[in-house]
């Protein structure tokens, strides 16, 4: 049985409607430092995986300095967006996160990825991790995991705050929530 510590990236410089791969703002850098300090105080060094996107890589940096370099893990990257411009993809996301995974997939614009397959690939990749691991990832990825662990089909079933830590256990391909991370007061669509 492996424990996975899913860290949502810290606060970025721009939202989903403003940029495709923003880094962290000043508050985000402070949040990343605080998350690293919390992990170092409560856990022994373990593997670190990170989404390839800047906001996750920059959130991982303080922990990397204290432990060791992270490995980029494509499976926990942000949900792929449909082939839309920034404004249109923001509008799509606003609608998509209000429904179920099936509804997201059924109403996705032409040329979109298969969101049910994407979700399953996230779950399978995380469930296959054989030992305790820290994973820097994104809001929707964490929701996919928590939803699956609770047998829920909602795209969003809880609202992990920036740099929050959600702990799940992986046992024989099944994911179970140990502890939900701190939740945010605003929606993802503000500063994603």
Give a description of the structure:
This protein is α/β, with parallel strands linked by helices and 192 residues long. The protein has a single domain, classed as Phosphoglycerate mutase-like (Rossmann fold, 3-Layer(aba) Sandwich), CATH 3.40.50. It has six helices and six strands. Helix 2 (54-66) links the parallel strand 2 and strand 3 (71-72). Helix 1 packs across helix 2 (54-66). Residues 188-192 have low confidence and may be disordered.
Give the domain tally: 1
The N- and C-terminal alpha carbons lie at a distance of 32 Å
What's the architecture in CATH terms? 3-Layer(aba) Sandwich
CATH homologous superfamily descriptor: Phosphoglycerate mutase-like
- Provide the residue-averaged pLDDT: 93
CATH class: Alpha Beta
- Return residue spans where pLDDT drops below 50 for at least 5 consecutive residues: 188-192
Give the class from helix and strand content and strand pairing: alpha/beta
- CATH fold descriptor: Rossmann fold
Order of helices and strands: EHEHEHHHEHEE
Largest sheet: 6 strands, mixed
């Amino acid at each position: 049985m492996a424990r996975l510590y899913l860290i949502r990236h810290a606060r970025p410089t721009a939202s989903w409607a403003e940029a495709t791969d923003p880094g962290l703002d000043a508050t985000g850098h402070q949040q990343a430092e605080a998350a690293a300090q919390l992990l170092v105080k409560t856990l022994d060094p373990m593997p670190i995986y990170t989404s390839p996107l800047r906001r996750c890589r920059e959130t991982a940096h303080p922990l990397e300095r204290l432990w060791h370099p992270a490995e980029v893990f494509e499976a926990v990257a942000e949900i792929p967006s449909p082939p839309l411009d920034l404004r249109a993809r923001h509008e799509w996301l606003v609608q998509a996160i209000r429904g179920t995974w099936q509804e997201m997939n059924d109403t996705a614009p032409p040329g979109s990825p298969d969101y049910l397959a994407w979700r399953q690939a996230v779950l399978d990749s995380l469930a296959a991790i054989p030992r305790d691991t820290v994973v820097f990832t994104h809001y929707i990825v964490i929701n996919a995991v928590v939803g699956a662990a609770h047998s829920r089909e909602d795209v969003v079933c809880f609202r992990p705050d920036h740099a929050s830590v959600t702990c799940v256990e992986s046992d024989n391909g099944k994911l179970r929530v140990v502890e939900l991370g701190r939740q945010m007061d605003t929606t993802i669509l503000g500063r994603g």
